[in-house]
Model the fold of this input.
Amino acid sequence: MKILTKLPNSRREPPGLEWTILKKLPKVLFAGTLIPLAISLSGRLFEPQGTAAEIAKQIKSVDIMCIATLVTLWMAALTVAIGCCVVVIMKGPAYVADAYELPDSESPWQRSSSDVV
Done:
């Protein structure tokens, strides 16, 4: 039996919002990645006033927040992309599942008189 055999007379649903989101996702990721990186770089270019320990602490805090923002953004984008892919697959054609033969029945749709409650 061939893997992923399409059901006869199955239909595809028209594409919707999921393709629009998938097409915009790279631009959103690029812009969303540049913003925290620009904030981190500006913290290094325009050094704050204070002692060396205070400056290092402030730069480290900004870097931690930027990394946390990047990780959150990328995880959210991955979650949205997975959701869009699931919708695309669900809107595609139907496929035949493996048959499960019932060994104790001649026909799976026939009920015997003992099955009736």
The two ends are 38 Å apart (CA to CA).
